[in-house]
Amino acid sequence: MPTALSLQDEFTACALLAPLDGQRLEGTPMATAEFDPLGAVVDWLDACRARRLDQLLKLYEAGATLECACDGPRSYRGRRAIASYWIDRLDAAVDESFQLINIVPGEDPDCVVLDYLSYEGKPVRMHFTFAASGKIAATVCAPTVGSRAA
Prior knowledge:
CATH class: Alpha Beta
Shape: globular
Order of helices and strands: HHHEEHEEEE
Structural class: alpha+beta
Number of helices: 4
CATH topology: Nuclear Transport Factor 2, Chain: A
Radius of gyration: 14 Å
Helix content: 25-40%
Number of domains: 1
Strand content: 25-35%
């Protein structure tokens, strides 16, 4: 029986690839004609920028998980819990929030790593794991040190 991954295990399982050279994107293991995981993460970022909780939640599996180390270790399971996490953050978002810093495929074929500015305008790294359906199965986030938007 598989055990639940801790925040550190999830970050290790979804480690970054070497820097992108343009050819890596073509080799993104989960990308298919029907599903582009990098595009799904951009859709996630767009929903956050638009402050559209309904659009954001549609991107998640019904039983998805969100682990956040930004405000202390917290875990949320299911769309309702994820909605409770995001509703106040979207309402409180500052003008520079949800700016893309970097996005790369992870080592794991169903993972994407996003560096962006949080709702507070602070640098955050979010790891996305996708289900076979193409919806987000899990997100794990933590603050980053020294990353800034260009």
